[in-house]
Amino acid sequence: MDMVAFLSANRMISVVKKTICAESARTVSILFVCMILAAAGCKRRAAQGRDPDQSAEHRPEVVVTNRMQDAAYVEELDASRRAQTQAASARAPVVAKMEAMVAEVRASLPAGAGDQAVKDELAKRPEWKALEVENARALAEIEKSVQGAREKIRRRMEAEARDVKAVAEGRAVPAEPAVPQKVRQQK
Question: Tens place of pLDDT for every residue, the chain, 187 residues?
């Protein structure tokens, strides 16, 4: 009986040794795979973190993700605003003359005269027709300026959306603001 117990103990020891060997092999293989993956990830990170002077083609583009922090865009908006203000100020004397002429005609008509009678009387005057033409020209100039500004804003908003998407995808980095918000608000 001692022999059976001895042989069984040898068997048990052998099974335990094989199990420990299998566990060790599994642990070593997992560590090996992790080291390979880490090395591959480090190479990728090293390629991303290269010195900008080494490779200009891999350097991400610097984009403005907030159009109001772009000094050139803000200057374009100011120029557009000035053009619209100038066009409106050119129209103001024409509108004042037209209002004065309407008041003059209303005063010359009987008290119960309606708007249609005022329009008919004004249509007879050549000065009114000249003022209407001048007013229409000034309004067209204002509308042209407004449309140009809308187009600039639309294009810049589309570019901003593309830039934000590029930053989110990692193809670009956001630029530092050219004009700080507090300085611009104090003007």
Answer: 455 555 566 766 777 777 777 788 788 788 777 778 777 775 555 555 555 554 556 678 888 888 888 888 999 999 999 999 999 999 999 999 999 999 999 888 888 788 889 889 999 999 999 999 999 999 999 999 999 999 999 999 999 999 999 999 988 898 887 655 544 555 4
Report the candidate in 25, 62, 15, 44 with the shortest Cα–Cα distance to residue 171. 62
Q: Which amino acid, one-letter code, is at 120?
A: D
How many whole angstroms separate alpha carbon 144 and alpha carbon 149? 9
Domain boundaries, the chain: 1-47, 61-186
Nearest to 138 by CA among 94, 83, 96: 94
Q: CA angle, 104 as apex, 98 and 106 as ends, to 5°?
A: 105
**Residue 176 CA to chain centroid, in angstroms?**
14
> Residue 156: which residues within 8 A CB-CB, separation 6 or more?
67, 70, 73
The model's pTM is: 0.56
CA 169 to chain centre: 15
